[in-house]
Amino acid sequence: MLRRGRKAGASSPLALALAALPLLPLAFLAPLVHLTLLGRGISAALTTGPVLLDEGGWLPLAAVVLATACFLPALRLLGLTFVLAGLRLSRPPRHLLRPVFRACEHLRPWAMVEVYLLGFFVAYSKLIDLARVRVELAGYALAAVMVMMALLDDMLDPIGLWEEVAPRGTYARAHARVLMAGRPRLIGCLCCGLVSEASPGAFCPRCESRLRARKPGGLGRSLALVVAAALLYVPANLLPIMTVDYYGQGVPHTILSGVEELAASGMWPLALLVFFASITVPVLKLFGLGVLLASARHGTRRRLLDRTRLYRLIEAIGRWSMIDVFMLSILVGVVQLGLLASVVPGSGAVAFAGVVILTMLASQSFDPRLMWDAASHNRRPGGAA
User: Fold this and answer.
1) Which of 152, 156, 177, 293 is the most exposed place for a label (fewest CB within 10 A)?
2) What's the Cα-to-Cα distance from 274 to each of 85, 171, 247, rounded to whole Å?
3) Cα separation of 314 and 139, whole Å?
4) pTM for the complete prediction?
5) Is residue 341 within 8 Å of 244, Cβ to Cβ?
6) 195/212 Cα distance (integer angstroms)
């Protein structure tokens, strides 16, 4: 399947984007949850956890949470609104729409509102065993933003939108300049999907991205990132991701102990979800990327299509492992009741966030077409990859 277009026009996605915009301040700044314990109450917003993480010396965790759960989703939604609204004008500012939409496509895997919401559910399940918990306005606003952005992504046809942002007539001259650059070959743009005759290093005539026949240094960069992620995976699972101080007694929690705690509380669906996202998915990503790198290196010809599907699966599920990092941010922001109860981050959380980010970067650096290139070389008589 080369392309499956959506039937929805630009009006419905624009309406969803405009409806989601005013909810962003509520979702990010209004109180998210309120906790009451022995007459003492505290409210926390989405940004409370990252602020407290920063004050406690955990700047990397604070930056990751703020970027992926707040800033990048907001930037992507603003960018899509600008593009969809700009196309409704009689004279769309195409010179501005191209770079904005290109940035929105690059931000897609890093905007994690829905993953944060799942982390909120996990945090809520842990908090109800500790004290009385009430979901505040931002919780409902965040759920509404997540639903609207999911519907927006489902309705949008990225290639169809590129054809509206840059109709063929608007880049005919650019395509002619590309052909004159020398030694043209068919190159598919990794951003907008346009296949054009161009020389490597030229710019895509439609979205103006740099054209590469293959990602330069993809195998070496992906291998380095996978090795780094594998080294971090050990402390991420052995070291505690947080310590819960309850009436002066600190109890460290690892990822696996958190799953066991959910299961012991009878929350089997949530325990299975956390186990899959935080333990199974990282192992699958590391093992799967290792298989893909080895097959591309040795030019294996077997099950090429299945290995390409494996790459797409790894690319799609990579970000869902951030559930534990988001859960920690929420607990740190809410459970700050002095001697009664508090949550302190652990070194395992930093290592685990590193595993998630490094594996995402590794999958983005890997070029699955290299597997097909190596296999085609091995088909030649006497040839070697």
Assistant:
1) 177
2) 39, 47, 27
3) 29
4) 0.86
5) yes
6) 11
On whether the CB atoms of residues 109 and 357 are closer than 8 A, the answer is no
- The token duo for 221 is 């960069």
Residue identified by tokens 């043209």 is 184
Check if the beta carbon of residue 213 is closer than 8 Å to that of residue 372.
no
Would the CA dihedral through 102, 108, 109, 113 be positive or negative? positive
User: What's phi and psi for 142, nearest 5 deg?
Assistant: -65, -40
Q: What are 171's two structure tokens?
A: 């880049």
Give the CA distances from residue 266 to residues 120, 121, 271, 323, 324, in Å, rounded to whole numbers and listed in that order. Answer: 18, 15, 9, 20, 19
Residue whose entry in the numeric block shows the structure tokens 């290299």: 370
**What is the SS3 assignment for 199-258?**
CCCCECCCCCCECCCCCCCHHHHHHHHHHHHHHHHHHHHHCCCEEEEECCEEEEECHHHH
Report the distance separating Cα 27 and Cα 30, nearest Å.
Answer: 6
Tens-place pLDDT, residues 138-156: 999 999 999 999 898 888 8
User: And the tokens for 15?
Assistant: 């309406």
Amino acid at 65: V
Q: What is the pLDDT of residues 39-58, one digit of tens each?
A: 777 888 999 989 989 988 89
Other residues' Cβ atoms within 10 Å of the Cβ of residue 95: 9
Structure tokens at 51: 């602020």
Q: What is the pLDDT of residues 9-25, one digit of tens each?
A: 567 889 999 999 999 99
